[in-house]
User: What shape does this take?
Amino acid sequence: MSHQADLPALVLRRLAGALPLILGVTLISFLLTVHFGPDQTYALIGKNPTAAEVEQLRSELGYDQPFVVRYADYLKRLVTLDLGHAQATGESVRAMLARTIPISVLLVAPGFILGTLLALGLAALAAWHQGGALDRIISAVSVVGMSLSLVVILIGLQAVFGVWLGWFPVRGWAVSGPADYLHHVAVPTMAFVIATLGYNVRFFRAVLAAEMTSEQVRTARAFGVGPLRIMVVHVMGSSLLPIVTRILFSLPLLVISGSLLIESHFGIPGVGRITFAAITSGDQPVLMAVVGLSALLFVLTVTVADLLCRLVDPRVGQR
Amino acid sequence: MSTLALQTGQRIRDRLRHDALGLIALTVVVAYVGIAVGVWLGLWGAEWSALSGPGWASPSAEHWLGTNRLGQDILARALASTATAFEIGVLVAVATTVLGALAGGLAGYAGPGKVDDTLLWLIGTLEAIPFYLLVAALVFALGGHPLAMHLAMIATFWTSTARLVRAETQRIRELPFIEAARVAGLAPRAIVLRHVLPNAAHILLVQGTLVFMAAIKVEVVLSFLGIGVQDSISWGVMIAEGAQDILAGQYWNFAAASLFLFGLVMAANLLADQLQDALDPRSLDSRWQPHG
Amino acid sequence: MRWTLVRWTHAGSRMAEQLLSVRQLIVEARSPHGRSVQLVRGLDLDIEAGEILGLTGESGAGKSLTAQVLMGLTPPGMMVAGDSLIRWRGRELNGLAERQWRKLRGSQFALIPQNPMTALNPTRSIGSQMRYLLKLHRQTTGRMATEAAARALSRLAIPDAGRVLERYPHQLSGGMAQRALIAMAVLCRPKLLIADEVTSALDVTSQAAIVDQLTGVCRESGTALLMITHDLGLVARSCDRAAVMYFGRIVEQGPVDSLFGEPRHPYTAGLLAAIPGRADPSQTRLNSLAGQVPDVDWRPSGCSFAPRCNKAAERCIDREPENIKEDERSYRCFHPLLRSP
Assistant: This one.
């Protein structure tokens, strides 16, 4: 119907509306990693430099330029994807990202998908039996899940499945086929599911339980509609906005934040590990690329969430 | 103080009196406070860094939870870490609450306009950067400052408090008694401080509890990554040690720190639930999710 | 205004099939202090095929709860007493499994909810929601279903029914949404409709039109209607019989003409006197309905209306009045108002 007609215009408007956000994120990343970041001159220069050499390098690094010029230059390189080379290894940042991002995606995807589906299912069960025994059990388990630290879960699972039972590898990422992949991804997946389940079940349950008491659900029941259809079409269908928003919003944060911890602990060569290494060594080109791109990913996600909801729920954006 | 704010204490007492779970949670939190106070007074846990026995000793009368690789007493370390946890949790929670309440109260009271837009922009920006990336970058930008970790957490946690206070302030400022205060000639700052914020006290209390808990959880992650607590002891430091011990088949260090951590976080979680139910039972549970 | 109106009388009312017969319906809930309280306290009600029955009383009397219970939708935390009888065309429904209830709802009887703007699924078009009901209860799909849905809308004087089918709920006005809901309710040709305060969310101008369309559809198709409303004017205008509910029980019922013309129960009389413009200033005491519906925790030993009744005597407080039958009507009162000579 009519609400799909002006889609391209809508996408453009949403992205334009996100410009202040992109500027803000890049400004912060610029401030943290470049402006207030460590002076790289002496790390890069050879032994016993002459004053002229120092001056030349500082000029190459742009240290003699005013703030605005350096920030503009930073933005230009980000937009044109001219990401430069890592200071530590000299490898092109673009190549590094191309190598590491797929690994991180493979690492977190199963846990993310499984965790979300499981949380939705449990939340639906709890919301359907609102106030009943099952609801209370699920809620209690959720609180326990919320109280466990991801670090503890990771190490605990590693101890049980890696050290004690010896079923799964303790570290590394020697993946050359589907079997290896499942072998390596099992413990991180379990950790992700356990760590996110409590929070997600609680959130989804609250959203679904509120919709369960709505008049449209009561009407549907009064017309003889069955439980499965009520839950999927009436309850989840009408709560799509908060559900989709939450799922999509957790995505970019999960890829970086989650993989940062898991990859550095398990020694998996994903984007989280190179990010962490870049933070600890102050590798500006890598940090700049990761922060900038994750902000862009975030904005893109927000836009996608918005469009998705507009397509599915006719109420959104019509008032 | 208005009557609304005074009711807060009464409602919490009623709730806890009628709910066993809430009472247990409160008792556990008080017990942890007792442990921390004991550490500050030097009653126990002072010997956490002393090499008091052989490495990886099993639990005994002398070392109730055994020793770590270096021969340090695990129980003393876990107890001393309780004090560290409270130092971090309370500092971050108080600073976050003050900062969030002021920023949110100001923007909410000012209403739509430049102040509000700027605050929302700042919040949106901070929340668009992956959490650990921002915290880790902040820790490094602050370059080895002893409070670097605390400041990084405060800089990222205040946004959710500010968001909640802003929404609540917008609601409260439309209430008749604020209008009456305005007519009576009270300055906006006085209205916010004396009338608006006390009525948002329930939000600050619940959110403060959650931030306290989040700070303790995030400390563990940061210390585990090696950018958290330095030159001191914390559950995060113990867990990082314990992760190495486990590869050698030694579980006590990891188990002790994990259980101490879990007990406090779980009790804080339950307490936050009870506070929420007692003070704002209708609110949808879209609770802020700490990272870690 | 005169209360005797010329109306449709459904043919041979004595011979009509008994659709629903409720005896001693008791609905209990747990109060916040852990005690159980009765919200419906022994309700008797009969509905015959094709008749239009008004169920009225102040808010809090238990009207809407009764409607929900009759649909098998007892709210969580409440329960129907095991020995209550809810007989649908000779079949006992109390204790029926949810699966069996589902087959009856929407096909044998249907509920029209209070607030039309929130009662429809906001994410599906009207047509899609109607077609699903036809598929569910009548195994009708495709063009047949679309045509049946359009016909149902047309019966409620909705112009351009085909286009309304494509609309989403938020694109409809309140009155149009309420008509669509009525159309959905009659879609699968149920024997009984329960309309729960269907006009309360609408503006005054469209209330009368919608009630006339609702009763019109019911009379045309011979569908019985239980109209729950606190609006006595509406009952007088559209119903064959009326039942007055007070504190979880029916205190008086009978044909609308005689009930409203000569109320027996002081409560009925009080409700009638409270209608603005109807009270005769020279005779009726204006405070005839002072006081409030009592708290649910209260357990009266006698007549529950006694504390508000200006005719209450000692026995009204001690003993509960029996249900007194008089021709086609009945009432529960020791001191009925009898026709003044």
In short: Chain B touches chain A through 49 residues (CB under 8 Å).
